[in-house]
Amino acid sequence: MTFKYVEKDTLMHKLHPITKASLLLAALLLALLYTYDYSVIPLLIVLAFELVLWRVAGIEFWRVALVIKVLMSIFLFFIIVQGFLYRGGVTPLFAIGHFKLWEKDIGEFTLEGLLYGIFISVKILTVVIAAIIFVMTTSITKMSALAHNLRLPYSFSFTLLAGLRFAPLIFKSFSDIKDAQKLRAFDIDRMNMIVRAFKAYVPILTPLILNLLRRGMELQISIESRGYGATKNPTQLEEIFMRPKDYLMLIMIAVVFFLSLYLNYTLAPSLYSGFLDHLRGMLARG
Amino acid sequence: MRALGRAVCLRWLERYGRGKSSVMQRIIELEEVTFTYPDGTVALKNLSFFLNKGEVAAVVGENGAGKTTLCYLLSGVIPHIYGGTIRGRVSVAGVQPKDLTMRELSKKVSIVLQDPDSQIFSPTVLMEVAFGPSNLGLSKEEIMNNVRWALEVTGLSGLEGRSPDELSGGQKQRLVLASVLAMRSEVLVLDEPTSQLDPVGVREVMGTLKELKGRGATMLITTHQTEEIAEIADKVIVLKEGRMLGMGSPEEVFSDVELMEYAGVKPPDVAILLHRLRRDKGIELGEIPINEFKAKESLSKLLSSGRIRVSGRVTLGSKREGRALIEVRDLHYEYPGGVKALNGVNLDVNEGDFLGIIGMNGSGKTTLVKTMIGLLRPQGGKVLFRGEDVSKFTVGELAKRIGLILQNPDYQLFTISALEEVVFGLRNIGVKGEEARRRALEILELVGLKEKADYFPFKLSFGERRLLAAAATLALDPEVVILDEPTTAQDYRGRYLLADLARELHARGKTIIMITHDMDLIARYANRVVVMTNGKIILDDDPHIVFNRVGELREAGVMPPQITRLAMSLSDVPNEVIRVEEFLNLLEVVG
To answer: What is the ipTM of this complex?
Structure first.
């Protein structure tokens, strides 16, 4: 798996999970709040700030390459859809035909639509990057400490932990069992959809469930003999405190957040329409 | 035989069982303990023994002898997790496990089970080891001290931040050990801690247990590994059908070949050799040795005194010139993440081969077999079956030509009766009705399960379930039969059931491939052996020759059988010896 915590010694790794979570929260709030295309300008400021933090966290690009790849195809989809369908689109760039739908000619790909597609993509990107920074710089130990600080019950974080570890094991058992049944000439790949849905999974799920029951029993023995539940509040190995750097970072996040909001309601609309006019002018001349 | 067993039993009981007062602190004590499971099975009968502080007891016996029940009883799993009726008195570290809860008991006694994968649940090594002590609510400093100590003892220091997924089998089981050690409990109970591991893993875990003994740990270990445990245990307890057959030092117990065989426990090969030298050839011996060094001394003395001499040679099997059935041509396979599992493998499996494939975990054995049966598609090279590229067939079609009998029968069994289980495979290849039933019964007879045709598969013992899974594979009548680790998690008697079945099939003209860590198995059955390391084949020859290539074997992480090691240490004996019978045939009594 790519999208996973990587041990490093950077400022971002040392920050309190709450600090990093508030960056994610800020990004999410802004993305939900901004609905007009001119908001791309204040959003880009947040994005730039996040990219600086990304650098600080030392996250290698290849680790998230898969996520980015998937995102790119989503963005492309949004840009194409918005390019043709955006209702405020008045400056056609090219046309593949002319189909009137109410007032809008959806055969035309417009400049405004293109920009609106980009705006939506930036919205998603701002949130995803904040999430990547959070996940890749926060160890599970710290997350469970966070759960403890938030007064979630211990059994909750234990279940989460065990689930995280056993999910891949269950998938592996599933595919091993599937292979094992194929070896008995049980050609699941050759069955049609209906047979597959009703019959094919009995020989796979039966052993899987029995296997999980055995595992569960053994896990119970293993954790109970290690005193699971002996105290209500097991010792937290990693105690997490808010440090001066956390407050400093929170202030920076707040500054960027309010700066972005301020821009959005003051300069952004006129700046954006100026930029749009400039583009339209260039298109008209070119 | 039974009478003999009883006599031996009484002898041991007189000497060790009761009445021997001791100034040492008894930390485990059982008095006349009988345990009955809710279904009426009596798992332990009248068991009495004690263990002093700092002592290590090994418990041996066949599957079903009561070893696991004993472990559960000592660690409180019985009666707190599994129910049943306990009679007699069980005392561990001054308490009766039934009187405390599992949580309170966890400070007194800890348990390690067979399968590390079902005991580890944390994302990092550190968190796993710290789990126990933090449940006890110790201070952070105490926890970290315990963790550091536990990791150091198990040789895992420096791996704190690693994910358990990145560890080898041996490392994982050492991690489980570390995580119970961190509890600092007084008694450690280990239920077959090495039965799921390869030879390297077994050596690692046994090394750790030895280290722990050196540090004064009190342990009770159940195992089938007599050779390795002999160096660790202070006393050995032999169980059969819930009763104690005998107890004594490893030398006393393991050298008693008749007792061992009656109990269904493997005696060391050198002990069998010298026992038979005494029994069959009338040679007077003092004590029967249980390791190759002592055996070398005894034999050297006999040889130099002229009581016995070596004559004759080991005759190797003649070269077979069968037709190639499976041809592997320059095979390459790389797993996602860049692990090269096969790195240019070439191999011809010929008709009439009984081929053993050996090598460490990760050497490419399993990957090679998976490409043969079409479960993996190689990135380079090809596999031909009777001249046809196997990539043309689906796994199901190939299964009619090449049958693979897997390690874990529980991945396959799902029906309500043994018979149904075999019929399932037949139905998949289009055999129906009465014909399917007739053929299924035939196969069940072949594997020796005909009487149990109506049994629910999960009511069968592990060994029987493996035979049933084998029957399900054999129902498709494949020309080549591949066995994956036929001896894993099996006792002395069970471990050869599948191999004996393979020998029977071989005699009927099938070609056999056997992947294994078990060198004795190769020595007994195979007529050809391939050694793999790092995705390559480094040796391919008769086992008599391969087991003498010590350098290559070490590179592959395997050791020749004990009997071969003994032969190599004696200059008069030809090094090609790989079986006890061969060794015995070479020795001639003078006068």
So the answer is: 0.82
